[in-house]
Amino acid sequence: MPSPDIVPQIEQALADGERYLDFAAMVDTLAALRSPYHQDYTLSERVGAVLLCVLWPDKPDEYTDAIRRFRMAFDGIADNTLIAARFANTIRPAAVLVPRPEDIFWDPTLYFGHETLAQQLQQP
To answer: Whole-angstrom Cα distance, residue 45 to residue 43?
Structure first.
């Protein structure tokens, strides 16, 4: 589960229909996949939270909108190992290797490979 420091931000970032436990599972998955490359779990948790639009509120609207729809594609991740595996398989190496939140580019297709992102970014 995410550290208590970011729980309020997660709760505030939830879109209608999203569950805290699903969001927390996504952040935890990102942090766990980063652990062989980044020993600081708190930093990895922050990177995951930024990528998933919990922290750093001044992201471009296109990024935030795309990531919210992306997150909704994994509704039930906290309770379903198949959905969790599918989410883990969307995570691209750039999400694992980006060193700090400050180094993130606001292009979700760099960090997640999922058809909803590519479709959303192609629409006008």
So the answer is: 5
